[in-house]
Write a structure and sequence with these properties.
383 residues, alpha/beta, eight-stranded parallel beta sheet, two-stranded antiparallel ribbon, binds 6-deoxy-beta-L-fructofuranose, binds manganese (II) ion, isomerase, L-rhamnose_isomerase, rhamnose metabolism
């Protein structure tokens, strides 16, 4: 396939990547971090300005609550970006100790559904088309609640949210195998997410967060299977060694990212028409945030470029003749190609800097915001 497909490829960046973040042990602060959602968008726009790859920013509600979302969307447009997925945040409210959409009490479930309805209004005000639900629901002890009743309650709550959505909006359902609960999660895996999506309807699709699997999971298999069912709605890209580490995508295992992109390219799902939203879900605890995001979108682009270089015809021929090593070599040839200079040339040809990280450093933006912004906020995550 041709590298020209890279021109239309985009990666969505998360607003929360630009705030201070950390672990439960320590949040290190960075001078000049955003004080409000407008400043998060201004920072995100820097990533797009220097890479041409990141024209949308995901919001998290209520982390990104503002009085006037129309104004936020207009501001984003002025900055050269748009609003992407709206994430419904259900994990920082005392009422949700026993869950949200699957909570045993109808009153709490109602409150969680209402929150989604408010998020749908944010989507209408900002032009966002994706409502992303990650459910922080589960149990900590065997017997704490009925696993089955929780699924039934969840299905009913999701149905209420789905019914309230407009015809051109999608519900993106994310799964995670553990945390914040440690015995059971109500959407622990892609199968559970897919079953709920199938029950809801065509506009419900699965989100695959690369950090949300047990060690050793073959993620590219899941990608392939969801694509086969036309239910891969989006990625939350990040990198993990141990658990949900949320580090820079493609840093720990660039080969895994390539293998994922190879499944994507095999069916043309990298093209915008496929509807797969390639998002980042990351935090930058010790490194600078804007360069961290620039590096991340470049890593995704690089993995896609290598996947586009796979000689599909040679691969098919080797596979059908049972040439095990030959088929493997076709993939490895693509993966081992150094595409950095080619991608820099392509950027230059589009009027973008050859080296986006160097261009950002030279722009003076970081120093300017460090002196103009005092008292930046926390991302709200990992504190
Ligand atoms: C949960 C998660 C989910 C949240 C985000 C902040 O671990 O991946 O996508 O919205 O982190
Ligand atoms: Mn996620
Ligand atoms: Mn996560």
């Amino acid at each position: 396939m041709s590298l020209d497909d890279l021109d239309a490829f985009t990666v969505e960046v998360p607003s929360w990547a630009y705030g201070n973040s950390g672990t439960r042990f320590k949040v290190f602060t960075t001078p000049g971090v955003p004080r409000d959602p407008f400043e998060k968008i201004a920072d995100a726009a820097q990533v797009h300005r220097h890479t041409g790859l990141a024209p949308r920013v995901s919001l998290h509600i209520p982390w990104d609550m503002v009085d006037d979302f129309g104004r936020l969307a207009a501001y984003a447009k002025e900055q050269g970006v748009g609003i992407g997925a709206v994430n419904a945040n259900l994990f920082q409210d005392d009422d949700y100790r026993l869950g949200s959409l699957a909570h045993p009490h109808a009153g709490v479930r109602d409150k969680a559904v209402e929150h989604h309805l408010a998020c749908i209004d944010v989507m209408r005000a900002t032009g966002s088309k994706d409502l992303k639900i990650w459910l922080p629901d589960g149990t900590n002890y065997a017997g704490q609640d009925s696993l089955r009743a929780r699924q039934d309650r969840l299905a009913e709550s999701l149905q209420r949210v789905y019914a309230a959505m407009d015809d051109d909006q999608r519900l993106l359902l994310e799964y995670k195998f553990f945390e914040p609960y440690f015995y059971s999660m109500d959407i622990p895996d892609w199968g559970t997410s897919l079953l709920h999506c199938l029950a809801l309807g065509e506009r419900a699709q699965v989100v695959l967060d690369t950090g949300h699997h047990a060690p050793g999971t073959n993620i590219e298999f899941i990608v392939m299977q969801l694509l086969r069912q036309n239910r891969l709605g989006a990625f939350d890209f990040n990198s993990r060694f141990y658990a949900d580490d949320d580090l820079i995508v493609g840093s720990a295992d660039p080969f895994q990212l390539f293998r994922i992109m190879t499944e994507i390219v095999a069916v043309g799902a990298h093209r915008p028409a496929s509807g797969v939203n390639f998002m980042l879900d990351q935090c930058h605890n010790i490194e600078d945030k804007i360069p961290g995001q620039i590096r991340s979108v470049l890593n995704v682009e690089q993995a896609l470029a290598k996947a586009l270089l796979v000689d599909a015809e040679a691969l098919r021929a080797a596979q059908s003749s049972g040439d095990v090593l030959g088929a493997h070599a076709v993939l490895m040839d693509a993966y081992e190609t150094d595409v950095r200079a080619t991608l820099a040339d392509r950027r230059e040809a589009r009027g973008l800097p050859r080296d986006p990280i160097a261009a950002f450093a030279a722009s003076g933006y970081a120093a300017a915001v460090a002196s103009s912004r005092v008292g930046g906020t926390q991302a709200g995550w990992g504190a």
